[in-house]
Design goal:
binds zinc ion, seven-stranded mixed sheet, alpha+beta, 25% strand, 7 helices, BirA Bifunctional Protein, domain 2
Length: 252
Protein backbone atom coordinates (compact mmCIF):
# COMPACT_ATOMS: atom_id res chain seq x y z
CA UNK A 1 0.00 0.00 0.00
CA UNK A 2 1.20 3.44 -0.88
CA UNK A 3 1.07 5.97 1.91
CA UNK A 4 0.11 9.49 0.95
CA UNK A 5 2.20 11.55 3.31
CA UNK A 6 0.51 14.73 2.13
CA UNK A 7 -2.95 13.59 3.33
CA UNK A 8 -4.25 15.62 6.28
CA UNK A 9 -4.03 13.88 9.65
CA UNK A 10 -6.94 13.04 11.88
CA UNK A 11 -7.43 15.42 14.74
CA UNK A 12 -7.05 13.76 18.13
CA UNK A 13 -9.67 14.76 20.67
CA UNK A 14 -8.03 15.98 23.83
CA UNK A 15 -9.52 15.77 27.29
CA UNK A 16 -9.07 18.43 29.92
CA UNK A 17 -8.71 18.58 33.65
CA UNK A 18 -11.98 18.25 35.58
CA UNK A 19 -13.04 21.61 37.11
CA UNK A 20 -12.76 20.19 40.65
CA UNK A 21 -9.25 18.81 40.07
CA UNK A 22 -8.33 22.13 38.50
CA UNK A 23 -9.62 24.09 41.51
CA UNK A 24 -7.68 21.83 43.90
CA UNK A 25 -4.51 22.39 41.85
CA UNK A 26 -5.16 26.16 41.85
CA UNK A 27 -5.64 26.24 45.62
CA UNK A 28 -2.52 24.11 46.14
CA UNK A 29 -0.51 26.66 44.17
CA UNK A 30 -2.09 29.64 45.91
CA UNK A 31 -1.48 28.26 49.40
CA UNK A 32 2.04 27.08 48.53
CA UNK A 33 2.82 30.68 47.60
CA UNK A 34 1.58 31.67 51.07
CA UNK A 35 4.03 29.21 52.65
CA UNK A 36 1.69 26.27 53.28
CA UNK A 37 2.84 22.68 52.93
CA UNK A 38 0.42 20.28 51.19
CA UNK A 39 -0.40 17.11 53.09
CA UNK A 40 -2.63 14.22 52.00
CA UNK A 41 -4.13 11.46 54.11
CA UNK A 42 -6.39 8.43 54.30
CA UNK A 43 -9.94 8.59 52.99
CA UNK A 44 -10.95 6.01 55.59
CA UNK A 45 -9.77 6.48 59.14
CA UNK A 46 -10.57 5.62 62.73
CA UNK A 47 -13.08 7.45 64.90
CA UNK A 48 -10.19 8.47 67.06
CA UNK A 49 -8.42 10.57 64.43
CA UNK A 50 -11.63 11.72 62.76
CA UNK A 51 -13.61 12.73 65.84
CA UNK A 52 -12.26 11.98 69.33
CA UNK A 53 -9.05 13.97 68.95
CA UNK A 54 -11.04 16.84 67.44
CA UNK A 55 -13.00 17.43 70.61
CA UNK A 56 -15.95 15.38 69.30
CA UNK A 57 -16.24 12.46 71.75
CA UNK A 58 -18.79 9.65 71.44
CA UNK A 59 -22.40 10.85 71.78
CA UNK A 60 -21.43 14.45 71.00
CA UNK A 61 -24.32 16.01 69.07
CA UNK A 62 -21.88 17.40 66.49
CA UNK A 63 -21.43 13.88 65.14
CA UNK A 64 -24.93 14.19 63.70
CA UNK A 65 -23.82 17.25 61.73
CA UNK A 66 -21.59 14.93 59.75
CA UNK A 67 -23.65 11.81 59.23
CA UNK A 68 -21.01 9.31 58.22
CA UNK A 69 -20.55 6.04 56.38
CA UNK A 70 -19.22 3.21 58.52
CA UNK A 71 -17.15 0.43 57.04
CA UNK A 72 -18.63 -3.01 57.56
CA UNK A 73 -16.49 -5.46 59.52
CA UNK A 74 -13.87 -2.80 60.28
CA UNK A 75 -14.53 -1.67 63.80
CA UNK A 76 -14.54 2.07 64.45
CA UNK A 77 -13.51 2.92 60.88
CA UNK A 78 -15.40 5.47 58.82
CA UNK A 79 -15.14 7.15 55.46
CA UNK A 80 -13.92 10.54 56.60
CA UNK A 81 -16.62 13.25 56.73
CA UNK A 82 -13.90 15.96 56.66
CA UNK A 83 -10.16 16.03 55.95
CA UNK A 84 -9.38 16.89 59.59
CA UNK A 85 -8.01 13.38 60.16
CA UNK A 86 -4.96 14.59 58.21
CA UNK A 87 -4.51 17.44 60.68
CA UNK A 88 -4.74 15.31 63.83
CA UNK A 89 -2.25 12.81 62.42
CA UNK A 90 0.10 15.58 61.27
CA UNK A 91 0.00 17.45 64.60
CA UNK A 92 0.79 14.24 66.46
CA UNK A 93 3.94 13.67 64.40
CA UNK A 94 5.17 17.27 63.94
CA UNK A 95 5.89 20.11 66.32
CA UNK A 96 4.99 23.75 65.65
CA UNK A 97 5.44 25.84 63.63
CA UNK A 98 2.88 24.03 61.47
CA UNK A 99 1.39 25.49 58.31
CA UNK A 100 -0.44 22.96 56.14
CA UNK A 101 -3.40 22.48 53.87
CA UNK A 102 -5.04 19.10 53.33
CA UNK A 103 -7.07 18.72 50.16
CA UNK A 104 -9.08 15.59 49.50
CA UNK A 105 -12.31 13.70 49.08
CA UNK A 106 -14.82 13.45 51.92
CA UNK A 107 -18.02 11.44 52.37
CA UNK A 108 -21.32 12.17 54.04
CA UNK A 109 -24.52 10.21 54.26
CA UNK A 110 -26.62 13.01 52.72
CA UNK A 111 -29.71 12.99 50.55
CA UNK A 112 -28.47 14.26 47.21
CA UNK A 113 -29.91 17.50 45.83
CA UNK A 114 -28.72 20.64 44.04
CA UNK A 115 -26.41 21.63 46.89
CA UNK A 116 -25.60 18.26 48.54
CA UNK A 117 -23.58 15.29 47.34
CA UNK A 118 -22.64 12.17 49.30
CA UNK A 119 -19.04 12.68 48.26
CA UNK A 120 -17.33 15.98 47.66
CA UNK A 121 -13.96 17.65 48.18
CA UNK A 122 -12.54 19.84 50.89
CA UNK A 123 -9.45 21.81 51.60
CA UNK A 124 -8.67 22.37 55.22
CA UNK A 125 -5.94 24.64 56.48
CA UNK A 126 -4.10 24.54 59.79
CA UNK A 127 -1.55 26.95 61.21
CA UNK A 128 -0.05 26.37 64.67
CA UNK A 129 2.67 28.45 66.23
CA UNK A 130 3.41 31.17 68.75
CA UNK A 131 1.28 34.31 68.51
CA UNK A 132 -1.05 32.93 65.82
CA UNK A 133 -4.30 34.90 65.80
CA UNK A 134 -7.51 35.47 63.85
CA UNK A 135 -5.78 38.40 62.17
CA UNK A 136 -3.39 35.94 60.46
CA UNK A 137 -6.37 33.87 59.35
CA UNK A 138 -8.13 36.90 57.92
CA UNK A 139 -5.06 38.02 56.00
CA UNK A 140 -4.33 34.55 54.57
CA UNK A 141 -7.94 33.92 53.55
CA UNK A 142 -8.36 37.34 51.98
CA UNK A 143 -5.23 36.79 49.93
CA UNK A 144 -6.00 33.20 48.89
CA UNK A 145 -9.66 33.79 48.03
CA UNK A 146 -8.91 37.00 46.12
CA UNK A 147 -6.43 35.10 43.91
CA UNK A 148 -8.84 32.19 43.39
CA UNK A 149 -11.79 34.39 42.46
CA UNK A 150 -9.59 36.78 40.48
CA UNK A 151 -10.92 39.83 42.32
CA UNK A 152 -9.96 41.79 45.39
CA UNK A 153 -12.50 40.40 47.88
CA UNK A 154 -13.46 41.74 51.27
CA UNK A 155 -13.58 39.17 54.08
CA UNK A 156 -15.77 39.36 57.18
CA UNK A 157 -16.16 37.10 60.22
CA UNK A 158 -19.35 36.13 62.03
CA UNK A 159 -19.57 33.91 65.12
CA UNK A 160 -20.24 30.24 64.34
CA UNK A 161 -20.04 26.90 66.11
CA UNK A 162 -17.69 24.04 65.31
CA UNK A 163 -16.57 21.78 68.17
CA UNK A 164 -12.89 21.77 67.19
CA UNK A 165 -12.42 25.55 67.33
CA UNK A 166 -12.95 28.23 69.97
CA UNK A 167 -14.02 30.80 68.99
CA UNK A 168 -15.62 29.39 65.85
CA UNK A 169 -16.39 31.70 62.98
CA UNK A 170 -18.26 31.73 59.70
CA UNK A 171 -16.40 33.53 56.95
CA UNK A 172 -18.20 35.65 54.35
CA UNK A 173 -16.67 37.27 51.27
CA UNK A 174 -18.01 40.23 49.38
CA UNK A 175 -20.30 39.08 46.55
CA UNK A 176 -18.50 39.26 43.21
CA UNK A 177 -21.68 38.77 41.19
CA UNK A 178 -23.63 41.86 42.07
CA UNK A 179 -21.51 44.72 43.34
CA UNK A 180 -24.33 45.37 45.84
CA UNK A 181 -27.23 45.33 43.42
CA UNK A 182 -30.50 44.48 45.16
CA UNK A 183 -31.61 41.72 42.78
CA UNK A 184 -28.50 39.51 42.99
CA UNK A 185 -29.48 35.82 42.80
CA UNK A 186 -26.38 34.67 44.66
CA UNK A 187 -26.30 36.89 47.77
CA UNK A 188 -29.98 37.91 47.68
CA UNK A 189 -28.95 41.55 47.82
CA UNK A 190 -26.93 41.31 51.06
CA UNK A 191 -23.62 41.86 49.26
CA UNK A 192 -22.00 38.95 51.18
CA UNK A 193 -21.62 35.23 50.46
CA UNK A 194 -21.10 32.64 53.21
CA UNK A 195 -18.05 30.80 52.09
CA UNK A 196 -16.41 28.68 54.80
CA UNK A 197 -16.05 27.77 58.47
CA UNK A 198 -12.99 28.49 60.58
CA UNK A 199 -11.74 29.43 64.02
CA UNK A 200 -8.96 29.18 66.56
CA UNK A 201 -7.96 25.56 67.23
CA UNK A 202 -9.66 24.41 70.45
CA UNK A 203 -7.10 23.97 73.29
CA UNK A 204 -8.54 20.45 73.86
CA UNK A 205 -7.50 19.52 70.32
CA UNK A 206 -3.92 20.70 70.94
CA UNK A 207 -3.92 18.71 74.17
CA UNK A 208 -5.09 15.55 72.42
CA UNK A 209 -2.21 15.64 69.93
CA UNK A 210 0.44 16.55 72.51
CA UNK A 211 1.02 20.22 71.65
CA UNK A 212 1.59 22.62 74.55
CA UNK A 213 -1.63 24.63 74.68
CA UNK A 214 -0.09 27.29 76.94
CA UNK A 215 2.65 28.08 74.46
CA UNK A 216 1.02 27.58 71.06
CA UNK A 217 -2.16 28.68 69.35
CA UNK A 218 -3.53 27.78 65.96
CA UNK A 219 -6.16 28.64 63.44
CA UNK A 220 -8.01 26.25 61.16
CA UNK A 221 -10.40 26.58 58.27
CA UNK A 222 -12.28 24.22 55.99
CA UNK A 223 -13.91 24.87 52.66
CA UNK A 224 -15.88 22.81 50.18
CA UNK A 225 -14.23 22.86 46.77
CA UNK A 226 -17.44 22.20 44.84
CA UNK A 227 -19.02 25.22 46.55
CA UNK A 228 -16.02 27.39 45.66
CA UNK A 229 -16.20 26.41 41.99
CA UNK A 230 -19.99 26.89 41.95
CA UNK A 231 -19.56 30.38 43.37
CA UNK A 232 -16.71 31.23 41.03
CA UNK A 233 -18.62 30.33 37.86
CA UNK A 234 -22.23 30.78 39.00
CA UNK A 235 -23.10 27.04 38.77
CA UNK A 236 -26.30 26.25 40.64
CA UNK A 237 -26.33 22.44 40.77
CA UNK A 238 -23.53 20.41 42.40
CA UNK A 239 -24.65 17.28 40.50
CA UNK A 240 -23.41 18.86 37.25
CA UNK A 241 -19.83 18.03 38.29
CA UNK A 242 -20.44 14.28 38.38
CA UNK A 243 -22.85 13.70 35.50
CA UNK A 244 -20.01 13.26 33.01
CA UNK A 245 -21.72 15.77 30.72
CA UNK A 246 -19.11 16.65 28.08
CA UNK A 247 -20.54 20.06 27.00
CA UNK A 248 -20.62 21.11 30.68
CA UNK A 249 -17.06 19.93 31.36
CA UNK A 250 -15.72 21.47 28.17
CA UNK A 251 -16.39 24.95 29.51
CA UNK A 252 -13.49 24.77 31.93
ZN1 LIG B 1 -24.57 39.50 45.15
Amino acid sequence: MKIDITAPGEKTKKGSRHPISKAIKDFEEIFSDLGFEIVYGNEADTEDYTWNKLNIPKNHPARDMQDSFWIKNLKETILRPHTSNVQTRYMEKNSPPIKIISPGRVFRNESIDATHEAQFHQIEGLVVGEKVSLANLKKDLKEALSVFFGRNLEVRFRPGYFPFVEPGIEVDVSCHFCKNKKDCFVCKGSGWIEILGAGMVHPNVLNEVGINREKFQGYAFGMGIERMVMLKYGIDDIRDFYDGDIPFLKQF
